[in-house]
Specification:
Layout (H helix, E strand, L loop, with lengths): L1 E2 L2 E2 L14 H11 L2 H18 L3 E7 L9 H9 L5 E4 L1 H12 L3 E2 L6 H6 L2 E4 L2 E4 L4 H17 L4 E2 L1 H11 L10 H7 L4 E2 L7 H11 L5 E2 L1 H14 L2 E7 L2 H11 L5 E8 L13 H7 L2 E11 L2 H14 L1
Parallel strand pairs: 3-4, 3-11, 4-9, 8-10, 11-12, 12-13
Antiparallel strand pairs: 1-2, 5-7, 6-7
Helix pairs in contact: 1-2, 1-13, 2-13, 3-8, 6-9, 7-8
Length: about 325
């Protein structure tokens, strides 16, 4: 079939079999032509090319909220298997990743009575319940001694990537270390940057430690210099950006200095109608030079806790 000189491609029905694997399903979703399913299929193709491109420096960004869920296991596995070279995320990611090494988060309900939860000393994050003792209390108990030991060892001025590397190193003796994103980033020498380091529970712990150790500080300019070196040394760059906010922006911001990302996949549920960065489609980033005009890119408008396991399963299978 042709229309206006272009060959038309027929829609194909998805047919699942007993032995259908994730790669087969992603290919069928691509051929199904149907909305988000097709875009998930396209994202797998783009990410496969990006990951296999030896000239490409691969970035990963994600928000903290999904680290409170089982999707943390997908992120951890991506880092464990070295699918990415650089991570940019938020302070909350450190909070949840570390807290869950030591304590459990629990199933909850979007419709729970939040006033009653507060009385029971339970935080609610969507439909995840986080007992207060499993969050702020355990983080203070565990992180203050780590900071004290770093300070005693003369490590008093650190970038966020250096700080997170040290925390990953300290997790080596923990029973549940292999569940941690931070631990595998340390093991695989993947730098983790947190430009908003004070915006979370770990940030508060850093501030509390500084109260009695005024020679201790976080040097954000060291992070920016390292990112600058990565960007300007890269022959190509690509990114999987989950959600938006500061993590997504920090990737696209730095990549504008090298004429934009060569590969880009965004997973988001945000709307573009309010002008937000989180909802901005990747085509908008082309106007800023943050995504290259000839880049392979796709927007996947879907909850990451649904899309990411599908995408990663297909990538692992391929």
């Amino acid at each position: 079939m042709k229309k206006n000189g272009k060959k038309l491609i027929p829609i194909k029905d998805i047919e699942l079999k007993r032995d259908s694997n994730a790669s087969d399903i992603a290919d069928q979703m691509l051929k199904s032509g149907g909305f988000t399913a097709k875009n998930i299929g396209i994202s797998v193709k783009i990410l496969k090319r990006m990951i296999n491109d030896k000239k490409c420096v691969k970035f990963l960004s994600f928000p903290a909220c999904i680290v409170s869920t089982g999707t943390r296991g997908i992120l951890k596995d991506m880092v464990k298997n070295k699918f990415f070279d650089v991570i940019i995320t938020t302070c909350g990611t450190l909070d949840h990743d570390l807290a869950r090494v030591w304590r459990d988060y629990c199933h909850g309900d979007f419709l729970a009575d939040d006033s009653k939860l507060y009385s029971r000393k339970i935080h609610r994050l969507g439909n995840v319940f986080i007992p207060m003792k499993n969050y702020g209390e355990i983080l203070e108990e565990k992180t203050q001694p780590i900071l004290q030991n770093l300070w005693k060892d003369g490590k008093k001025v650190l970038s966020t990537s250096e700080l997170i590397k040290e925390f990953g190193k300290k997790l080596q003796k923990e029973k549940n270390k292999e569940s941690s994103i931070i631990y595998w980033a340390y093991k695989n020498k993947i730098p983790v940057f947190v430009p908003g380091i004070t915006d979370g529970a770990l940030g508060t712990q850093l501030w509390m430690f500084w109260q009695e150790h005024k020679d201790f500080s976080i040097n954000l300019f060291k992070d920016e210099q390292e990112l600058s070196d990565i960007i300007f040394d890269a022959k190509k760059t690509g990114a999987l950006m989950i959600g938006g906010g500061i993590s997504k922006h920090h990737i696209t911001w730095w990549n504008q200095f090298r004429n934009g990302l060569d590969y880009a996949v965004q997973i988001t549920t945000a709307t573009e109608s309010d002008g937000s960065l989180s909802g901005a489609r990747l085509s908008e980033a082309i106007s800023w030079g943050k995504v290259n005009r000839s880049a392979d890119y796709i927007d996947v408008i879907c909850d990451a806790t649904v899309a990411l396991p599908l995408i990663y399963a297909a990538l692992k299978n391929k």
